[in-house]
Amino acid sequence: MTRHFRMALAGATMLASAGVALVPAAAQTSTASIRGQVSGADRAPLSGATVAAVSTGTNQTYRAISDASGRYILNGLRPGEYRITITGTDGARFERVIVVAIGQSASLDATLVAAAPAAAEGGATAAAPGATGDVAAAAPVAGDGGEIVVRGGRLVETRTSEIATNVSQEQIRTLPQTDRNFLTFAALAPGVRYNDSETDKSFSSGASTASQVNVFIDGVSLKNKLREGGVAGQQNSRGNPFGQLAVQEFRVLTQNYKAEYEQAGAAIITAVTKSGTNELHGEVFGQYTDRSLSAKSFLDRRDGNAKPAFERKQYGASLGGPIIKDKLFFFAAYEGNDQDRAFNVNTTGSDAAVAQFEQFSGRRLSDFEGAFVSPFRGDFYFGKLTLTPDDRQVFDLSFSRRTETDIQGFGGNVAFENAENKRNKVDTYLFKWTYSGDSFVNEVNLNYLDYQFRPTSINPGLPTFDYDSVLVFGGRDSTRREIQQGYTIRDDLTYTGLQGHAIKAGARVEITDIEFNNMSFVEPRYTFRIDQAGTPADTSDDTSFAFPAEARLGLGNGRIFGSNTQVGLYLQDDWDVTGRLQLNLGVRWDYETNGVNNDYITPAAGVAALRALPQTSYFKAEDYISTGNNRKPFTGAIAPRLGFSWDVKDDQSTVIFGGFGRYYDRNNFNNTVDELSRTINPIGVFRFSQNGTPRSNLPTVKWDPSYLTRDGLLALAASSTQGLPELFAVKNNARPPVNDQASFGVRQRVGAFQAAVTASYQRGRNGYTNVFATRQNAGLGNCCDTAPALANGYSNVIIGLDGLDTRYKALYFTLDKNYSQSSGWGLNIAYTVSESEQNGGDLFSLDAITPDAYGWRRRAGDERHRVVISGIVDLPLNFQLSTLTTLGSGQAYQVTDARNGFDTGQLRFTSAYPEKNCIGGVFAFCEVNLTLANKFKLFGSNDQVEAAVDLLNAFNTKNPSGFDGFFSNTDPLEAANSRTGSSALTLPRRVQFRLGYRF
C-alpha cells in the first residue's frame, strides 16, 4: 500500500507539473489572515457588514461578513497587496489599500461613516488601527466611483503570541548581502544566527543546532532528514537553498509558532514564491566581485601568504504575467552562481615534525603548499503556474531544481589532492488546491522532494596519508551517495463559522525513502603521530612519522535502503475571547514508523559482545539488542502549544503576549545509520607499534612495510585480530529530540516605531550522541578495555544515547519602522542578550563517560550580546543608502582543561570567548555592510534600472575564529585574538557591483 501511495503521489505531482495548471502556494504556513472589528460612527459594533479583499494583482476576491459583535476574519490570503472594502447594511463604506505579509495574523479595525459629499476631504476614510505609521500619513487617491481611498502600507501584526519577524521584498531587494542567499536576512530576527562562512550557509537559533531548524517554501518542508544542516542541500555548502529571485518574502518564527508547523525544535523560516499577475513583469540582474576588489585577509597578511585568487559572478532572470487575464498566470526564474576562491595550503606543524615528515615520507612539504582554487558552480530553475477559475478556488503548480558542484575540503594542512567534489541536487514538485467556502478555507498540498548528495574524491584511487599537524595528502578516504526522496500529502482546514474562533485542523502524511552508500576507506587511510602515548618514561610504545600509528580500511561495499512513514495531526484554535484578548490553543501529534531503523537485527556476534560488556547506569545490553520486533515507534510526541495576546487599550498600541509550547524534532538518518552501515560496510581498524605490544590499553601489531597497501592490510586482517570493525549500537527506545519553550513580552507602538521586549526560555532534551561502552573499571574509568569486543570480532563498541541537553535564556528587544516610499526611510533593530548552555559533545561525546559527566557549559557559538541593525534611506537624485550591520560580544568556543590530569573525571570541560577588538573593545565581532544604489527609469514609468555598489565588511574587521581549545599545567591556553586564530568568521573588505533591470 505504501508503494502504491508513493507512486500515485509522485505521478500526480509530476503529471501536474507537466501541463496541468495546479499546485503550491503553500499550506497555511505561507498564507495570511486579517481579522478586525467593524463599528459605526457611534463606535457600536456593526453586524452584517460585507468585507471584501480584492487582490490588486489578480483581481481575486476574498469575502467575509461581520458577526453580531462586529468581528470578521479573512483567511487564506496570499501575501500581497489588497483593496479592502467594508460596506455596512446602510451603504456606509470603508476602503483602504493594504499589504499583508506571509504568515501574518494582521488586524484591521474599521469605523464606517455614511458617505457624504465631504468624503473627498477624508471624512469617510478616517485612519483605523492596524497599519504602519505611514498609512495615516499616506495621500488619498481616487477610488472606483469617485470615493476617496487611503493607500496604505503593510499591516502590522500585534495581536499574536508568536515571536516572528517578517522580511519583505523591499528588504530582500535592497539590503546588502554577500551572495544572494535569502537566509542571510534570518539574522534580522532576534535569537537567530546566520552562518556566512565559505563552506557553511546554515542558520540556527537559541541553544539548538542547525539540524533542528526547518525551512518551508510555499508550505513544503525542505527538512534535511539525512544529515546535519537542517535544510536539504545546505550541509557544508556555500550554495543557496532556493533562488532569491523566486522568493517574494519570508517569515522567521523564532518561538511559540503554532501547531501547523512540524519537524523543528528551533527557528522556522516560511517563504512564499512569486506568482504571475495580470501585468507582465520581468527582471534581469548581474553582480560581480573579484580579487582586485577585495582586501587581503588578516590571516594572509599575518602568515605571509600571497593574496589568493577570488572571483564571484551571479546572474539571473525572471518573467511572470498572465496567460488568461484574471484566470491563469505564470512565473519562471533562473539564477546562476559561479565562484572561484583559492585556499592556502600550509602546515601548522613544528619544524621538527616537518623534518620528520620529509625524512620518512620522501616528499617535500613545498610540493603541496600554495594557493589552490576551489571552484563552485550552482544553477537554480523555478517555474510556477497559478489558476484562479473563480473567487473560491486557487490552483498552484510549481517545480524547482537546484544543482551544484563544489570542489572543497582542502586548505590549511590538507593538500588539494585530498579534496572532494560535493555534488548537490534538490528537486521539488508541488501541487496545491485552495478552496474558500463561506466560513472555511481548505488547502490540499501534494509535494515531492528529491535530494541527492554525492561527494566524490577527486583522486579516488589514492590512499590517504595523515601526518598529524603537518599535512594530509593523497585521495579523500570516502565517496558517498546519499538520496532522500519524500512523498507528502497534506490537508489543512480553517473554520471560522463559530463566533470569535478561527479553528484549524490538519493532517500530513509523508513517506521518506533513503538510499545511503557510504564507501568509506575504499583506499586505506594511514595516520602518523609523534606521541609518547602518555608514558614518557617508556619509549617502547612511542610513535613517530617512521610508521603509521593507525590505519583504517573499508572491508565491505553495500548500499543501505530505508523507508519511513511520518504522520502529523494538529488542532489549533485562535480564540478572540474579547476584542482585547486572544488565546491561541493548539496541540500537535507526530508519529514515525521507522525512526531508528526499527527492523534492524543485531548480529549474533554483536549480541555476544554487548552482553559481555560491563552493565552500568547508562548501559544495559538488552536495551541495545534489536530482534527486529522490539523497537517500537515512539508514540509520545504530543506537543501542546498555548499562547495569548492582550491588547491593553484595544487600539493595538500596547499588547502583552506570551506562551508555552513543546516542539518535537526528529533524529537525522546519519545519527543512527552507523549501526547498520558498519555491519554491511565494516571499517577495519589497524594499530601499529615498534614491537607489537599494547599502547594505551589497545592491542597493536608490529609494523611491516607490506602493510602500506590495501592488499597488505587485507592479508593482515585475515591472519590476526587487527582490522576488526567497531560495533555501533542504537538504543532501542531512543526518543526524538524535544524543545520546551516559554516566552512573555510586550509590544508598544511609539510614534512611527513598533517596539517589543520579550523574555525567552528554552530547554532542549533527547539530543542523540555516541559514547564508549568499553570503559575500564566496570565501565566507569578510562577508555578502553576492548577484550570483550575483541573476543567477539570487534575492535571496540560505541553506543548511542539520547542524552544531549541544552538550556537557553534570552531577552529580545526589537524596534521596527518598516521602509515605505511615503516616508523614504526604514529602520529595524534586533538586540539579543542571551546565555546558551549544553552538556556532552555533538554526535560523539567520547571525552567523558556520559554527556552529563561533561557538566553544563556555554555552548559553542554562545554570544551574550548581539545587535543587528538594518536600515534604508532615500537620498536625493534617486539614490538610496542601506545597511546591514552586525555587532557581537564574541562567540564562545569549547575548551578542555587538563590541569587536574587526563584521566576520566579529571578533565574539565568549559568554554572561552575571544578578545573584544572593535569599537573601542566593546565588541568582538563587527561587520558593517553598506549599499549605495541609484534607481532610474529607462523606457517609461513602468520600468526601473538599479545600479548598486556593495561595500561588504566596510571597516575590514578581522573577526578571527579557530582558537586554541586545550590547556594543561605545561600547555597554557593561548589568548583568543587575531594573532592566534586559524580562521575568520567573515571575508575581508570587498566591493561588489550590481546591475538590474525590472519592468
Commentary on this structure:
The chain is mainly beta. It contains twelve helices and 52 strands. The strands form eight sheets. The chain has a 22-stranded antiparallel beta barrel. The chain has a six-stranded mixed beta sheet with strand order 3-2-5-6-10-9. A six-stranded mixed beta sheet has the order 26-25-29-30-35-36, covered by helices on one side. It is globular. It starts with a helix and ends with a strand. The relative contact order is 0.10.
User: Which value, in Å, is the CA radius of gyration?
Assistant: 30 Å
Determine the fraction of residues in helical runs and give it as a percent range: under 10%
What is the typical, i.e. mean, pLDDT? Answer: 90
The total beta strand count reads: 52
| End-to-end distance | 50 Å
- Please tally the helical runs, counting DSSP H or I stretches of 4 or more residues: 12
What is the oligomer described by this structure?
single chain
Main beta-sheet annotation? 22 strands, antiparallel, barrel
Q: Output the structural class.
A: mainly beta
**Outline:** globular
Uncertain stretches of 5 or more adjacent residues:
10-28, 116-151
Give the percentage of residues in beta strands. Answer: over 45%
